[in-house]
Amino acid sequence: LPNGVELTVVNYGEVEVCQVDVYIKGGFLHESQPGLVTFVAKMLNKGTADYSVDQIAEKFDYYGTDLALIDSGMAITASMKTTNRNLPEVLPLMYDCITKPSFPQDMLDKTKEKAVADLAVMRERVSYLARRRLVQLLVGENHPMTKSVDDECVKAITRQSLIDYHNRYFVPGNCMVVVSGKISPSELALVRSTFGRWE
Questions:
Q1: DSSP secondary structure letters along the chain
Q2: Residues near 116 by Cβ (< 8 Å), separated by ≥ 6?
Q3: Distance, CA of 46 to chain centre
Q4: Fewer Cβ within 10 Å of end Cβ, the chain: N or C?
Q5: How many CA atoms lie within 13 A of 50 on its CB side?
Q6: Strand 6-11 to strand 175-181: parallel, antiparallel, or no bridges (unpaired)?
Q7: What's the distance, CA 145 to chain centroid?
């Protein structure tokens, strides 16, 4: 798109459904502190400049759509499946979550509290410990992929660190949008106009 967003369209199928995947390059291999990328991904749908967390959940639920937010070593991915009929209703909300998250402090505190509890459970699981050790054996103990997040890492995450990461990586030239499914000119025009206005 003119603003630098890379747009790929995979047109297939006969059913009026589509999937929109947005990839923001720069995952946990590029983070300045352990756990930062995970928290950015978890917090994208917890409130925006225009919508509260409850409004976001209610609207996605009403239209039978789910926004999956996934962090990896190389990217943060926002993925949404919906019917073509509902795309005009949910695509602007997905766009808001990606481009205008507010990272509300109360939701960050709750997310951090849950993460600490989840870490305590994970440390007791043999599968988690084995997976961590396997990665160390495969790539070496000093590789960025072997960084582990502990309670201190979680406590060190601040709202400002999320904002700083978002401002650095969530820019049009660092983003790829993939639209797949039965894509007509109207769906394509909607995706173009939505992500094309990102500055």
A1: -TTS-EEEEEE--SSSEEEEEEEEE--GGG-SSTTHHHHHHHHTTSBBSS-BHHHHHHHHHHTT-EEEEEE-SSEEEEEEEEETTTHHHHHHHHHHHHH-B---HHHHHHHHHHHHHHHHHHTT-HHHHHHHHHHHHHH-TTSGGG----HHHHHH--HHHHHHHHHHH-SGGGEEEEEEES--HHHHHHHHHHHHT--
A2: 151, 154
A3: 11
A4: C
A5: 10
A6: parallel
A7: 19
Paired strand residues for 81: 19, 66
166-194 pLDDT, tens per residue? 999 999 999 999 999 999 999 999 999 99
- Residue 187 to residues 16, 99, 143, 155, 183, Cα–Cα distance (Å): 11, 20, 42, 42, 6
Do 56 and 65 contact (CB within 8 A), yes or no? no
Q: Is 43 exposed, middle or buried (0-12, 13-18, 19+ CB in 10 A)?
A: buried
- Cα–Cα dist 107/15, whole Å: 37
Question: How confident is residue 32, by pLDDT bands cut at 50, 70 and 90?
Answer: confident
Q: CA 197, 37, 79, 42 torsion: positive or negative?
A: negative
**What are phi and psi for residue 52, nearest 5 degrees?**
-80, 170
Do 108 and 39 form a contact (C-beta atoms < 8 A)? yes
